Amino acid sequence: ILNVEQSPQSLHVQEGDSTNFTCSFPSSNFYALHWYRWETAKSPEALFVMTLNGDEKKKGRISATLNTKEGYSYLYIKGSQPEDSATYLCASGTSYDKVIFGPGTSLSVIP
Amino acid sequence: DAMVIQNPRYQVTQFGKPVTLSCSQTLNHNVMYWYQQKSSQAPKLLFHYYDKDFNNEADTPDNFQSRRPNTSFCFLDIRSPGLGDAAMYLCATSPRLAETDTQYFGPGTRLTVL
Q1: What's the per-residue H, E or C state across B8-66?
Q2: pLDDT 10s digits, B56-72
Q3: Do A43 and B45 lie within an 8 Å CB cutoff?
Q4: Nearest CA in chain A to B35
Q5: Is pLDDT at B11 greater than 70 in this prediction?
Q6: Chain B residues close to A99, C-beta within 8 Å
């Protein structure tokens, strides 16, 4: 059984602070790493998909990095805003034609 | 806008009373997934359809069934809900069954079992 872990489980930051959190995944049979943002009462939406070791992706104030050799990805949010409050899910795509999700990091940005 | 729609958003049922959750998509994707997410846990894949081919996860209880009458619709049937089945149920779609494909999610159905 493949486990994807995320830390911390929850995070509270002040508006304007930068923050980051971690996704850990099995490095064997790795195909892709996905990040999703899930705002309350909305649908989870895709942020990034990364496949290569050393990949870095950026969307506005949010960026992500990938280390496939050691099995981790970081998500960074620069200058957090209240609208960034959401649960951030990562998911690892394996060679078994499936994607395994982590439990998410819940971010609250305090105005 | 192309999207994934789930109905109802909130469902309350009684212990043992069958319930059906529905999902529809306008993306014309081949793959549709059902996930179960319990509080603070990872979404857990129950099953998926690739076109009409049904694929059940090995640890999905027999109490859970699914139907996909056409490309656009997929249903989750819980034959005899137990208290442990209370959860958020997410439907998702993707163009292909590929680890690199983004999944497109509906907003989920929150199931309460009394």
Answers
A1: CCEEEECCCCCEEEEEEECCCCCEEEEEEECCCCCCEEEEEEECCEEEECCCCCCCEEE
A2: 999 999 999 999 999 99
A3: no
A4: A101
A5: yes
A6: 45, 99, 103
